[in-house]
Design goal:
Blueprint (H helix, E strand, L loop, with lengths): L22 H14 L3 H15 L5 E5 L5 H7 L8 E6 L2 H13 L6 E5 L10 E7 L10 H11 E12 L5 H17 L4 H11 L8 H11 L2 E9 L2 E7 L3
Parallel strand pairs: 1-2, 1-4, 2-3, 4-5
Antiparallel strand pairs: 5-7, 6-7
The structure holds ligand GEK.
């Protein structure tokens, strides 16, 4: 399948429907996420460094909200130890169907299972690494603490939880500045003002970013230590946190 350009919001729509990860989005997803999320590719490029450090033999890696498996692939190609498996979980049927095809076309030796399921309830066991890129922001805020505790419980001692998110800022001026810069980034990627405005409206009640302080607090409450912001580009950031040994 050739990669299609995202033109979903190109024409004025009378009514903007809430954003959904459906067939239409799946078709353009790699282009959409790369042109919308500053730092998306650098984050994927850095994941192998972490994976090589933390993934141990006879353990599992989870990619929660895996979409088309970009993080899964980046880790799959990096793992050098024996007897590991990667489990990608996503609730969108369209994403999971396409992700399975992509995984089947990749000939790396680490087995991958792509599961259609809810990350809030899908079991996490014997994990040396859990990755959750740009997905917490789509989980209802009152369920996020339980999700982080669920991840913590499924990690082995010393294992890592890596996640990337869009950030929100308490300071109105900083929020405004980051939003403007993000929109400039999208313009530079070829999105029109109409596309930016309509996509923003579609995500309004669907994607709810947290502040960095809230993320840190939630990780600490769950028991994580050595919490680090390992990547930041404008209002997008990635964190790593470890379960104590
Ligand atoms: C990437 N990580 O390319 N359970 C399972 N999946 C969910 C849930 C849920 N409760 N809620 C949302 N999703 C990917 C990008 S996209 C982020 C992740 C974005 C899934 C949803 O179906 C979608 O595929 C993914 O989380 C979020 O690195 O598009 O901005």
């Amino acid at each position: 399948m050739t990669q299609q350009r995202d033109r979903i919001y190109q024409h004025a729509q009378e009514q903007i429907e809430p954003f959904r990860f459906d067939e239409r989005v799946v078709k353009v997803f790699p282009d959409m996420i790369q042109r919308s999320v500053p730092g998306y590719l650098p984050i994927l490029e850095q994941l192998p460094l972490l994976a090589r450090q933390v993934v141990v033999p006879q353990s599992r890696v989870y990619d929660l909200g895996c979409s088309l498996g970009a993080a899964t692939l980046s880790i799959r190609r990096a793992i050098q130890v024996e007897d590991c498996e990667i489990i990608g979980v996503d609730c969108s049927e369209a994403m999971v169907t396409r992700c399975r095809e992509i995984m089947a076309q990749d000939n790396s030796r680490v087995p991958v299972e792509v599961v259609q399921g809810d990350i809030l309830t899908h079991p996490i066991e014997n994990a040396s690494l859990v990755v959750m890129n740009f997905t917490m922001q789509f989980i209802s805020p009152e369920q996020r603490a339980d999700l982080v505790q669920h991840i913590f419980a499924g990690l082995r001692p010393g294992a890592a939880f890596v996640f990337a998110e869009k950030l929100r800022f308490d300071d109105a001026e900083e929020q405004h500045l980051m939003t403007e810069w993000h929109h400039d980034f999208k313009r530079a990627q070829g999105y029109s003002d109409l596309e930016i405005a309509q996509k923003r409206a579609s995500l309004e009640r669907v994607m709810l970013p947290d502040t960095e302080a809230i993320h840190r607090q939630r990780l600490q409450s769950a028991g994580f230590v050595r919490i680090s912001q390992w990547f930041r580009c404008l209002n997008f950031s990635a964190f790593v946190a470890f379960k104590p040994e």
